[in-house]
Design goal:
single chain, alpha/beta, Cobalt-precorrin-4 Transmethylase, domain 1, Methyltransferase, Cobalt-precorrin-4 Transmethylase, Domain 2, five-stranded parallel β-sheet, 19 helices, 20% strand, binds S-adenosyl-L-homocysteine
C-alpha cells in the first residue's frame, strides 16, 4: 500500500515573495504538488519548479473550483503519498477558508500541518507606513470581511479604532454608509491598498466619507484592502516603501536568464517592478573539437583573454571534462572587466591585466604596450562577437586563436513574456541592455514598437552604438560599464527625468 502523504497549509504572505516564512519556503522546495490560487506569487511557485502545480483560482467573479473540490483534490494527492503544499495568500486562517480545508483532511485521515503567513493587514501596515496600533491613537484593531456587510453589526465593529476591511472593495460605499449611520466620524482617515507589498502597490487615501468615490474614480480592482482609523494619517511621515527611488517604475531586464538575478534584485530593492525578459541563453559549442584542442595545448599559450564570465565558465566546464586541469596553464591572464576577473579570482588565479575601460578597444590599447611578437594568445569566447580584439592583436604580431567556447540561443519561455509585455495596457518605464546581443535579440523577440517612449539604459558605448544603429534612443549609459554603474545611471535618470 502507498504511504499516505501530508498536506501543508502554507501562508504565502501578502505578495512580496520575501515575506514567506522560512518553513514555508523550505516546504515549497520539497513539495511534489502545489495547489494555489490567484494570490500566489509567481516567485513562490518558482521555488517548486518540479512539482505539479494545480491552479484552483478563486476570483470573486469566476469561482474556478468549488471549495469541496479543492478539499477533495488535497485529499486525493495526499492519499497518493505526495507532499502537498496548499499555498494560500496571506495567512491560511485569516479569511482563507483554511479551517474548512483542514476539516476535510481530518475527516479523510490525512496528516497535515499549518504554516502561518503574514496576513494582508500586516503587510499593508508595514508597506504603507500605517501602524495598526499607536499609543496616541488606537488600542483596538479589528479584521473584518466586507463580503456580506448586512451580516455585520456595524454599531459594534464600526467603532473599533482601527478597522481593516478585507474583500471590502465592491461593497465599500454601502459599508461606509453603514458605519457613518452607526456613529463613526465621517472624517476618519481611510485608505484602500491594492497588491500591497508588491512593486505594483497602489494606495488611495481619503476619509471614511470620501474613499468610496475616490476608489470608484480610479476603478480600483481587487485584491484590495481598506484601512479605516486615525493611524492612516501617520502615513505621510512613516511611508518608506512608496518613497523608494524606483517605486512605481516597471523595468524590463533583458540579461541572460542565469545572470538576470543581480541586476533584477538590485532594481527590486530600490522599489522597481522588475520584469525579467531573458533574451539570451547559453549553450556549449556544437562542435567542441577546437576548444578541446586548445585545452590539450594549454601550456603553449602566453596569454588567455576572457571577454565574459560565460567564457570563463564554459571554458572550465570543458576543461573539467577533459583529461587536463589548470596545472597546464602557464599563460598570463586578461579579463575584460571586474565581473570576469572575479570569476577567475574565484579559482585562486591572479588576473594580470584588466583594461581601464571595460571594452575591446581599451584592452587592445593596454596590450599594445607589451611585446606580443610571436606570442600565442587564446581567446575563448562566443562564435559571434566583435573581431576588434583578435584583428588588432594579429597586427601587433601575435598568433591568435579565437575558439568558440559557448553559443547564444533564444531562451525557452521568453516569447510568452514578450507577448504579455506587448499586450499590456501600460508600457514599461525602462528597458536595460547589457550587451549588443541583448539589443539585437530583444528586437527579434519583441520588436522595436515596444521601445517607443520607453527609457533605454545601456551598459556602455558599444551596446549604445548597437541600439542607435537600430534606430533606438539611449536615455542613459552606465559609467563605469558595470551592473552597479547601470543601476546608478537608472537612478540618476529616474530622478532627473520625471
Ligand atoms: N488569507 C488572506 C486573505 C484572503 S481573502 C490573508 O491573510 O491576507 C482575500 C482578500 O485579502 C482580498 O480581497 C484583499 O482584501 C486581501 N488581500 C490579500 N492580499 C492582498 C494584497 N497584497 N493587497 C491588498 N489586499 C490583499
Amino acid at each position: 500500500m502507498t504511504k499516505v502523504g501530508k498536506v501543508y497549509l502554507v501562508g504565502g504572505g501578502p505578495g512580496d515573495p520575501d515575506l514567506v516564512t522560512v518553513k514555508g519556503r523550505s516546504l515549497l522546495e520539497q513539495a511534489q504538488v502545489v495547489v494555489y490560487d490567484n494570490l500566489a506569487s509567481r516567485e513562490l511557485l518558482a521555488l517548486a519548479p518540479n512539482a505539479l502545480h494545480i491552479y484552483v483560482g478563486k476570483k470573486k467573479s469566476d469561482h474556478a473550483m468549488p471549495q469541496e473540490e479543492i478539499s477533495r483534490l488535497l485529499v486525493e494527492h495526499a492519499l497518493l503519498g505526495k507532499l502537498v503544499v496548499r499555498l494560500k495568500g496571506g495567512d491560511p486562517f485569516i479569511f482563507g477558508r483554511g479551517g474548512e480545508e483542514m476539516e476535510a483532511l481530518v475527516d479523510a485521515g490525512v496528516p497535515y500541518e499549518v504554516v502561518p503567513g503574514v496576513t494582508a493587514a500586516l503587510g499593508i501596515a508595514a508597506y504603507t507606513g500605517v501602524p495598526l496600533t499607536h499609543r496616541d491613537h488606537t488600542s483596538v484593531v479589528s479584521f473584518v470581511t466586507g463580503h456580506a456587510p448586512h451580516q455585520i453589526d456595524w454599531s459594534k465593529v464600526g467603532h473599533a479604532e482601527t478597522l481593516v476591511l478585507y474583500m471590502g472593495l465592491s461593497n465599500l460605499a454601502d459599508i461606509s454608509q453603514r458605519m457613518i449611520s452607526a456613529g463613526r466620524n465621517p472624517d476618519t482617515p481611510a485608505m484602500a491598498v491594492r497588491w500591497a507589498t508588491r512593486a505594483t502597490q497602489q494606495t488611495i487615501t481619503g476619509t471614511l466619507a470620501t474613499l468610496p468615490e475616490l476608489v470608484e474614480k480610479v476603478q480600483m480592482k481587487p485584491p484590495a484592502t481598506i484601512v479605516i482609523g486615525e493611524v492612516v494619517g501617520l502615513r505621510e511621515k512613516l511611508n518608506w516603501f512608496e518613497k523608494l527611488p524606483l517605486f512605481g517604475k516597471q523595468i524590463v531586464v533583458t540579461r541572460a536568464a542565469a545572470q538576470a538575478g543581480t541586476l533584477g534584485n538590485r532594481l527590486h530593492e530600490l522599489g522597481a517592478e522588475v520584469v525579467e525578459l531573458p533574451v539570451i541563453a547559453f549553450a556549449p559549442p556544437l562542435d567542441p573539437t577546437p576548444l578541446n584542442l586548445a585545452i590539450a595545448n594549454l601550456a603553449e599559450y602566453d596569454w588567455l583573454i576572457f571577454t565574459s564570465t560565460n567564457g570563463v565558465r564554459y571554458f572550465l566546464d570543458l576543461l573539467d571534462q577533459s583529461p587536463y586541469d589548470l596545472r597546464g596553464l602557464r599563460a598570463k591572464l586578461c579579463a575584460i572587466g571586474p565581473a570576469t576577473a572575479k570569476e577567475l579570482e574565484a579559482l585562486h588565479l591572479k588576473v594580470d591585466l584588466i583594461p581601464e575601460e571595460y571594452v575591446g578597444e581599451s584592452l587592445v590599447e593596454a596590450m599594445s604596450k607589451l611585446d606580443l611578437t610571436r606570442k600565442r594568445i587564446l581567446i575563448p569566447r562566443a562564435a559571434v562577437a566583435r573581431d576588434v580584439v583578435p584583428d588588432a592583436l594579429l597586427r601587433l604580431g601575435a598568433i591568435v586563436d579565437v575558439v568558440e567556447t559557448y553559443r547564444t540561443v533564444v531562451p525557452a519561455g521568453s516569447e510568452a513574456i514578450a507577448k504579455q509585455l506587448l499586450s499590456a495596457a501600460r508600457k514599461p518605464d525602462w528597458v536595460t541592455f547589457t550587451s549588443s546581443s541583448t539589443v539585437k535579440n530583444f528586437l527579434v523577440l519583441a520588436g522595436a514598437e515596444l521601445l517607443s517612449d520607453v527609457n533605454i539604459a545601456s551598459i556602455g558605448p558599444v551596446t549604445s552604438a548597437t541600439a542607435r544603429m537600430h534606430g533606438l534612443t539611449v536615455t542613459v549609459e552606465a559609467e563605469p560599464h558595470t551592473i552597479e554603474g547601470l543601476v546608478d545611471a537608472i537612478l540618476l535618470g529616474a530622478s532627473t527625468l520625471h
